[in-house]
Amino acid sequence: MFAPKQGDERATADGAEGMSGALFLDSMRAWLTAGGAVLLVGCAPYSHYDGSALVPGTSTEAEALAQMGPPDEKVKLDNGSTEWFYALPAARQTYAISFGPDGRFVSSEQRLQREFIDRIRRGWTIHEVQALLGPPIETARFERQQRDVWTYDWKEYSDYWELNVQFSYDGVVREVLNLRDMQYQPIGPGVFIGGRVGVSVR
């Protein structure tokens, strides 16, 4: 690294102050362009994972794999169909791509929505929950209660939610707890409440 000789500090400072405005603007422009590229990547649409490019009754699992990449989870259903799940944690979404027994695309659904979440009831099996919502964002075991808990983060309009499905050790749903994620709940300009509030239990 270049170091100015003693007595050259003033000259170095003068050189910095005399830096061409054009050079400074060019440097800033390059930095902003790079930053903009990162922002564009970060804001890329999720349509790549929603199955919108697949054709019902025509597209195959091989074509889906080529277009969308490997799923986060595959679930085989009793009727021979298969569900491929693509989880998008940042968007609080999970897409289920359904294939028939013949391996051809049937439909695509965003499953982390109220219409699907409200179907879960006590007595469901862990496989039924998995086949409906796909992989949880987090799992935990509570030895004292003898419960396994699967957590799903989801969003409805501007409301953020945390779904906790509690299973007994035999893989049966014992409780479904839906919590409003208050860390995203504004109470004023730029002010948010921390913590979570339970609003529904099944």
From the 3D coordinates, which CATH architecture of the largest domain would you assign? 2-Layer Sandwich
Number of H- or I-type helical stretches = 5
**What is the C-level CATH assignment of the largest domain?**
Alpha Beta
Strand order of the largest sheet: 5-6-7-8-11
The major pleated sheet works out as: 5 strands, antiparallel
- Tell me the series of helices and strands, N- to C-terminal: HHHEEEEHHEEEEEEE
Number of domains: 2
Draw up the topology in text.
Blueprint (H helix, E strand, L loop, with lengths): L8 H9 L3 H22 L18 H8 L4 E4 L5 E7 L4 E7 L5 E6 L3 H4 L8 H8 L4 E5 L4 E10 L2 E10 L4 E9 L3 E4 L2 E3 L2 E6 L1
Antiparallel strand pairs: 1-2, 2-3, 3-4, 5-6, 6-7, 7-8, 8-11, 9-10
Word description of this protein:
The chain has five helices and eleven strands. Mean pLDDT is 79; it is low at 1-46. The protein is globular. The protein has helices at 9-17, 21-42, 61-68, 114-117, 126-133, and strands at 73-76, 82-88, 93-99, 105-110, 138-142, 147-156, 159-168, 173-181, 185-188, 191-193, 196-201. The protein starts with 8 loop residues before the first helix and ends with a strand. It has a five-stranded antiparallel sheet, with no helix packed on it. The protein has a four-stranded antiparallel sheet with strand order 1-2-3-4, covered by helices on one side. It has a two-stranded antiparallel sheet with strand order 9-10. A hairpin with a 5-residue loop joins strand 1 (73-76) and strand 2. With 202 residues, it is an alpha+beta fold. It folds into two domains: 46-110, Beta-lactamase Inhibitory Protein, Chain:B, domain 1 (2-Layer Sandwich), CATH 3.30.1450.10; 111-202, Beta-lactamase Inhibitory Protein, Chain:B, domain 1 (2-Layer Sandwich), CATH 3.30.1450.
